[in-house]
Amino acid sequence: MRVGELSKRSGVPVATIKYYLREGLLPAGVLTSPNQAHYDDEHLRRLRLVRALVDVGGLSIASVRDVLVAVDTRDDSLHNKLGTVQEAITQPGSAELDPLAVKDVQEFFARQGATDCVDVTESHVTHMLATALSAARSVGHDDFRNLLDPYLEGLKIIARADLEYITRHGSPDDIIEGMVVGTLIGDAVLKAVRRLAHGQVSREVFGQRPPD
Amino acid sequence: MRVGELSKRSGVPVATIKYYLREGLLPAGVLTSPNQAHYDDEHLRRLRLVRALVDVGGLSIASVRDVLVAVDTRDDSLHNKLGTVQEAITQPGSAELDPLAVKDVQEFFARQGATDCVDVTESHVTHMLATALSAARSVGHDDFRNLLDPYLEGLKIIARADLEYITRHGSPDDIIEGMVVGTLIGDAVLKAVRRLAHGQVSREVFGQRPPD
DNA sequence: GCTATCGGAAAGGTACACTATCCATATGCG
DNA sequence: CGCATATGGATAGTGTACCTTTCCGATAGC
Fold it and tell me: What residue stretches are annotated with the HTH merR-type domain (chains A, B) (predicted)?
């Protein structure tokens, strides 16, 4: 197909597709003449992945590129690849780390027997966790960190489901793409379902009674 | 204090504070003369809340304003207030809803006995859920929706911890602010901890020591 | 032959979140 | 008092991100 049909089938404007091609988010089509190119279903699939990452995952164009590079790299262990992808799909966050929050994270790791797993200062994920705990402190919720353990308890159930889902979708190369999709779309789903759960809880607790 | 000290104590530049004042994110200080105003600890607290919503929650300035209006509204039930706040802290997402995804959401609600709770087409949260499921479909993960139930199972544990946290922090007016902080910072924490869990699981499965 | 579309490059546009400048006061210190 | 500095308020400007628009000469397809 040519770019017009790619646009029609994906819902992405032609100008935007050209922009993604320029930015390296989409591989170039096969040139059949100096100014005609041919795109296939892989391009369509990749384009839809890009839109999912941008729209649902909220990733920047630069992050999407990082993710796709990791997805496309073949000569790497799955574990390393997941690490690369996780860094790419986690927004860095520029602020300095609060030492108190770093200590919270380290204590959490120690409690969970994962001390050797990650260096707090080196990973976007732990940086994000420390930043969030620091923000909680700054608005007067010093003991928000006490929620880490129950959160992990619930997330173990969720991570188990994630793993099972991923391994069931064990097409040879799709597994990393499945991780990306599952992680980012999973984030959005978790966010939404958690809010629904809050709503139901709030209905039970604050529902009919008028406030004093 | 005057704006300079407010800036020093919060780490937010004076120009940015002025911008927030213009945008109604921060109430004006008490004027002691035509061009001198006085700010107190409430301003500092509010300013830190704004930064937490922007930095950790990733909210736009407009969304922050919506949240603060809801937080400051006094004559409303807590349940309604939570609803307003939830709408404000959940990005709308402009796309059309995919009927298949809407059906997934409705079936999920029916399974969980929450049919009367929310109108799928009317709430940002359900819109977000349907959008996420639709995106999953579009990249070839039609059965991602099967994860909804295990996700809810894990989130019940988490929501219970959230509720207990909120009610323990039951200062009369702070409860809504606690909900906002707990929800948004909680989102970030959940995201991070889930990635850590994935990393550990990946280490077990794909790392150097497979469990079996 | 004629019109629509193409690939490719470059310039333009829009939205957002600040940031800088200006100015007529006010403050605080010596 | 004198004077550098800071202030409130208004207006204009900046930087980044993500597209759009416009142009071009070259096909494609009827």
Answer: 1-70
- For residue B2, how far is the Cα from the chain centroid? 31
What nucleotides of chain D have any atom within 7 angstroms of a protein Cβ? Answer: 6-11, 17-22, 25-28
**pLDDT tens-digit readout, A39-67:** 999 999 999 999 999 999 999 999 999 99
Measure A4 CA to D26 C1' (Å). Answer: 17
Other C-beta atoms within 10 Å of B98: how many? Answer: 16
Residue B107 CB neighbour total at 10 angstroms: 12
Phi, psi of A37 (to 5 degrees): -135, 155
- The domain that contains A14 carries what CATH number? 1.10.1660.10
Residue A135 lies in a domain: no
What is the domain extent for residue A43? Answer: 1-55
Is residue A47 domain-resident? yes
B18 touches strand C (CB under 7 A): yes
Q: Per-residue pLDDT tens for A71-81?
A: 888 767 778 88
| CA separation for the pair A27, A169 (Å, rounded) | 25
B91 touches strand C (CB under 7 A): no
- Three-class DSSP category at B117: coil
What's the distance, CA B66 to chain centroid? 12
CA of B69, C1' of D11: distance in angstroms? 27
**Is the CB of residue A179 less than 8 Å away from at least one CB of chain B?**
yes
How many domains in chain B?
1
Domain-located, residue A39:
yes
CA angle B189, A151, A132 (to 5 degrees): 20
